[in-house]
Design brief:
The complex is a heterodimer of chains A (about 280) and B (about 270). Chain A is of the alpha/beta class. Chain A is built from eleven helices and ten strands. In chain A, the strands form two sheets. A six-stranded mixed sheet of chain A has the order 6-7-8-3-9-10, sandwiched between helices. In chain A, helix 3 runs parallel beside helix 5 and helix 4 crosses helix 5. The longest helix of chain A is centred in the middle third of the chain and has 18 residues. Chain B has two domains: about 160 residues, no CATH class; about 80 residues, no CATH class. A two-stranded antiparallel sheet of chain B has the order 1-2. In chain B, a hairpin with a 2-residue loop joins strand 1 and strand 2. The longest helix of chain B has 30 residues. Chain B is flat. The mean pLDDT of chain B is about 85. The chains are: A alpha/beta (about 280), B mainly alpha (about 270). At the A-B interface, helix 2, strand 6 and helix 3 of A face helix 8 and helix 10 of B.
């Protein structure tokens, strides 16, 4: 399933004193099966962009085509779009409401009008896919830890079997262990379920390891769009807009300056370690 | 959609009205409301209109912004207008059909009531637009201070009011986010009959209540951590004091009400 954005603009509170242009002339093409990271500092328009992709917000101008169909056509079915493009919001507390975790995950499939058997089957499958411990299935969601809540929230969207899964800052407020677990989970889902994943974050470290395409947003515009290896060499420009390249990028550049012949384009610690070893031999 | 609610919204600007002491603004609003309901005749109306227009001009709040607040009461205005128009007995009946009749008194009553309501909303929203909720409750606390003597917990009431006002935008924003999160899971808040609609609200209300209680808990904790212990012996960082412009405003208020009363006595027509 492909999504094409054509000259998309979005403006909050248009025509008032509080008018903010959140997105400016965005052109993007999101292909099937990609693992995309959207990076930007607070207020760069990345959350707005994700909400446009599943029709929660309507672009002020411009068009969005999903599978070749204009989603702003009058006879386009928005609910259909939301079934295809799943969006997990930043705070799981905003969506957990049922008496048990299992029931909460059932909410999405229930809204899709499936029969009870299929609903439960999907809920089980989704909870298993996010690695949620079985003994907590029938516990209330309000007592869970932050990481577990997030798993339930992701399962709640995953149970709707979307073709594209968007995660808005899935690691916010988690400790390093929880962060690695969630990101590992997302990477595994991409591999095993074969769905397109869009990961929104403001931390380069988070996404560098996993994604195969990186979209850097700045003040409502796409600043860079490419593989991490193509984006990180611009680390000075990234710094200027309040972002940072992964620490290995800095290390490799410094080593290079000091005269060690290393590949400055290494993006992960593992790659860098191998490269440094190779250079020292 | 939900962001369009303008109750208690503050419009930041640099103007003489913004800088007035909140007590002056409360008092002026009271005077204005009294004037609005006791004026009579075209002269009084002109005086009130001129005063309102002048204050709006000085306040630097765009008129467009004020009109937005009127949108919320359009239905109320229509009902008031229509009822007054059709059910007021009068001397001259222009048209009648069953219980409905159009009379001269009906027409003037309808116009008067609708104008009064519009002016009421414009005037009071001007106060909330130019005064931050904090200033407003500060002012109220000071004005109602004497009630402390008869054991009315004025400080507690003022504190509750300012917290409640402060939380309106936060909870509105939260509602917006929760709605979106549930809509992303296929929730439907618009279609269906009344019972279905009420049922569909559950996924919105539960997270909202949970978060409101948590916020209340956090806030209580934060206040206690800073040794908040009620109004007893509490001082203000910015105590309210009157200065020259506040006295001028009081004088203008008095002139205004005297003019309106004089107009009522001497030019009480055509209404």
């Amino acid at each position: 399933m492909s999504i094409i954005l054509d000259k998309v603009n979005y403006c909050y509170s248009e025509g008032t004193a509080y008018q903010i242009q959140a997105l400016k002339d965005i052109n993007l093409e999101i292909l099937d099966g990609q693992f995309i990271g959207i990076i930007g500092h607070t207020g760069s328009g990345k959350s707005t962009l994700t909400q446009l992709l599943n029709g929660l917000l309507k672009a002020t101008s411009g068009n969005i085509y999903v599978d070749g169909k204009d989603i702003y056509d009058e006879d386009y079915n928005m609910r259909d779009l939301r079934n295809k493009v799943g969006l997990v919001f930043q705070y799981p507390d905003h969506q957990l409401f049922e008496t048990t975790n299992f029931e909460d995950v059932c909410f999405g499939p229930k809204n899709q009008g499936l029969d009870r058997k299929e609903i439960e089957l999907r809920a089980f499958e989704a909870l298993r896919n996010v690695g949620f411990p079985e003994e907590l299935y029938y516990q209330p969601p309000f007592d869970l830890s932050g990481g577990q809540k997030r798993r339930v929230a992701i399962a709640g969207v995953l149970a709707m079997k979307p073709d594209v899964l968007i995660l808005d800052e899935p690691t916010a407020g988690l400790d390093p262990a929880g962060r690695d677990e969630i990101l590992g989970l997302v990477a595994r889902m991409h591999k095993e379920l074969g769905i397109t994943i869009i990961l929104v974050s403001h931390s380069m470290e988070d996404v560098a390891k996993y994604v195969d395409r990186l979209i850097v947003m700045n003040q409502g515009e796409v600043m860079y769009d490419g593989a991490p290896k193509e984006v990180f060499p611009h680390y000075k420009e990234l710094e200027a807009v309040g972002l940072a390249a992964p620490q290995v990028t800095y290390l490799m550049h410094e080593l290079k300056e000091k005269g060690l012949d290393v590949n400055v384009n290494a993006t992960t610690v593992k790659e860098a370690a191998e490269d440094i070893l190779h250079a020292l031999q | 959609m939900i962001r369009d609610i303008t109750i208690g919204q503050y419009y930041p600007a640099e103007s003489a009205i913004h800088k007035l002491d909140p007590r002056v603004k409360l008092f002026s609003t009271l005077i204005y409301i009294i004037a609005l309901f006791c004026f009579r005749g075209i002269a009084g109306f002109v005086i009130i209109t001129a005063a309102l227009a002048a204050v709006i001009k000085i306040s630097k709040v765009p008129f467009k912004f004020m009109v937005k607040g009127l949108k919320a009461i359009v239905i109320l205005l229509l009902i008031t207008g229509v009822f007054n128009l059709l059910f007021t007995p009068g001397d001259i009946t222009i048209w009648s059909w069953g219980p409905f009749k159009l009379t001269d008194a009906g027409i003037s009553n309808a116009i008067l009531m609708v104008l009064r309501l519009i002016y009421l909303i414009l005037g009071t929203s001007l106060m909330t637009l130019t005064t931050t909720p904090n200033q407003l409750t500060d002012g109220l606390e000071k004005v109602l201070g004497p009630l402390n003597k008869i054991h009315v917990p004025v400080h507690a009431i003022a504190m509750m009011m300012s917290i409640a006002l402060r939380f309106i935008p936060i909870l509105i924003e939260e509602t917006d986010k929760i709605m979106k999160a549930q809509m992303a899971r296929g929730a439907d808040f618009e279609n269906g009959n009344l019972i279905q609609k009420a049922r569909n609200m559950i996924p919105l209300l539960i997270p909202l209540f949970v978060s409101a209680f948590r916020r209340a808990d956090d806030l209580a904790m934060a206040m206690e951590a800073r040794c908040y212990s009620g109004g007893e012996g509490r001082t203000k960082m910015k105590p309210l004091t009157y200065d020259k412009k506040d006295y001028i405003a009081y004088i203008l208020d008095s002139v205004f009400i005297v003019l309106v009363v004089a107009a009522r006595v001497f030019v009480p027509f055509p209404m």
